[in-house]
Amino acid sequence: MNDQLGRRLAILAENPQCRLLVKGLRGIERETLRVTGDGKLAHTRHPRGLGAALTHPHITTDYAETLLEFITPAEDDAALTLQSLETIHSVAYAQLGEELLWSESMPCALPAEPEIEIAWYGTSHMGMLKHVYRRGLALRYGKAMQCIAGIHYNYSLPGALWQLLQSREGSNATGQDFQSESYLALIRNFRRYSWLLMYLFGASPALARSFLRGRDHQLQELSDDTLYLPYATSLRMSDLGYQNDAQSGLVPHENSLADYIKGLTTAVNTPYPPYEKYGTKRNEGNEGSAGDGEWIQISTNLLQIENEYYSTIRPKRVIRSGERPIQALCSRGVQYIEVRCMDVDPFEPIGISLQTARFLDIFLLFCALEDSPLADADEIKENAQNFAATVKDGRRPGFSLQHQGQAISLQSWAQQLFDKMRPIAALLDVQYGGKQHAATMEVQTAKVLNADLTPSARVLAALRENGNSFLQFGLRQSLSHARHFKAQQISAQDQAKFATLAQSSLAEQEQAEAQQTGNFDDFLAAYRASKLCESE
Predict the structure, then answer these.
(1) Coil, strand, or helix at residue 173?
(2) 295, CA 20 to 30 Å: which among 97, 128, 479, 533?
(3) Residue 433, phi-psi category: left (phi > 0), alpha (psi -120 to 50), beta (remainder)
(4) Which of 337, 24, 380 is nearest to 186 (CA)?
């Protein structure tokens, strides 16, 4: 155990500071495609009974009209977070009719690109901004990639914990700066060790052949409709999933918040020739046909907006009305982090288990407390290579990673990390009561010792039981999950709560559309011209 980790754990083990460990917050965003009863992409509009995707706080859509996104409130216990997620799923199923929620991260069989509908958010300026942004994503990356689903885990530690550590460690930074830089330190450690999450929880070793749309690949054939890699953990997080050439040179700038903000600001403001050839409007400067002059992307820059940056983790701050993410970070600092690399677990109806959430809490607290030196170019490259190798080959016998330029087996490095995490699990168990955190440490240790216990290995075993078909397996799991949710009794209180939220969200969208002034072109011009940070 290094000096910083041991020192910080000793501080947090003291009374009454130990209670700070249970005052952090976590929330989950789960994405899932709506599909028909035979496992094909649904073509219906977002159900009105679920409210307005633009304004509902818990039920919205991501890229595609059929890609639902469920957002839990932030809770101080992962068990409460998952309970909220279960309720949201049950409420959604009550409005889906015969449709199902797809159980996998990788999509069902997709129709031709023109038949995949982009999410619609109404005619308000903000609604059109979200829609045009998604048109730009379709133009840049294709629609199939935007139908991939994941689990996003939002995590924060209480401000009082950061204040305590700042006081004990004698930092002269402002409280906001100390907290922000501590979250950036967490992110650097996450980059170093997130290969472990892919090994333990990756659940997408196979995909439907149709997903690749003729792209070159090195996958092996499992059946007529299914391609895979025998030792892959998460093809979703490989270059076959969330990939794009434009961002390949966009190296994370996470040695400080100022560096991060500067890097994203530059990307948002830098023209990118392959996107410039499209323009921002259809047949720009040569209108005459139906649809000409229609917006097709927000800008021709490397990133249209900050959120286009595909990253496994992001520093975040709750934004105010009309505010952009970088503006929030620049003015008020980092409030929480968003982990974006987690696959949907096809064996769990809500896509994630409590055991997994408990481990994420241990892992992220470890990343926050562990010493986190600044990363140079060589380490950034090594971290990225370790992650990329694990998602494609992590279960291969004898698989090794690079640690400070030296080869080390995944099993050996994982055990070293677990040794550091066990005291954290013990502290959390003392505060929450019970032994759930210690128990999940033992479950994850067993996976390291036996790769057959990992979700990715279990998926491949299940595929073999379903004719080696990814689509058949996905449909079977989706039907099973549907039966689970339809058997749930939604309390009268929750029924009333979500009915009210649906109606109020619809009313809020209608009000925004009725009261807006000016035209969309002017609105978008002002949005693009907005100053992202005072240092610009």
Answers:
(1) coil
(2) 533
(3) left
(4) 337
Under DSSP, the state recorded for 119 is P
In order of 194, 248, 250, 253, 349, the CA distances from 310 in angstroms are 15, 10, 10, 14, 26
3-state secondary structure 145-166: HHHCCCEEEEEECCHHHHHHHH
Q: Give 186's contacts (C-beta < 8 A, 6+ positions apart).
A: 337, 364, 367, 368, 372
**Strand extents, DSSP E, 244-367:** 313-316, 336-342
User: For the ranges 200-204, 278-282, 387-391, which has the lowest average pLDDT?
Assistant: 278-282
Strand partners, 208: 226
Task: Concatenate the DSSP letters of all residues of 477-532 into one string.
Answer: HHHHHHHHHHTS---HHHHHHHHHHHHHHHHHHHHHHHH--S-HHHHHHHHHHS--
pTM over 0.85: yes
Pair of tokens at residue 488: 């749930």
Over residues 152-168, the mean pLDDT reads 97
336: Cα separation from own chain's centroid? 14
Has residue 151 got a pLDDT over 50? yes
Contact assessment for residue 204 and residue 234, using Cβ atoms and an 8 Å cutoff: yes
Residue percentage of the chain with pLDDT more than 70: 95
CA atoms of 186 and 353, how far apart (whole Å):
23
Q: Tell me how far apart the alpha carbons of residues 69 and 72 are, in angstroms, rounded to a whole number.
A: 10
State the Cα angle at 178 between 175 and 183, rounded to 5°. Answer: 125
d(CA 299, CA 292): 17
Q: Is the dihedral of CA 292, 298, 301, 303 positive or negative?
A: negative
pLDDT at 248 over 80: no
Closest CA to 102 of 503, 520, 470: 470
Q: How many helices (H) and strands (E) does the chain have?
A: 17, 12
Checking if the pLDDT of 79 tops 60, the result is: yes
What are the tokens at 324? Answer: 């952009």
- Cα–Cα distance, 166 to 168 (Å, whole number): 6
Average pLDDT for 194-211:
97
Q: What is the predicted pLDDT for the residue at 532? A: 76
Maximal C-alpha separation, the chain: 73
Residue 54 has pLDDT above 70, yes or no: yes
Please report the pLDDT score of residue 1 as a whole number.
Answer: 45
Look up residue 271 and give its DSSP letter.
B
Question: How many Cβ atoms from other residues are within 10 Å of residue 291's Cβ?
Answer: 10
Torsion sign over Cα 521, 522, 525, 527: negative
Q: How many Å apart are CA 499 and CA 106, to the nearest integer?
A: 31
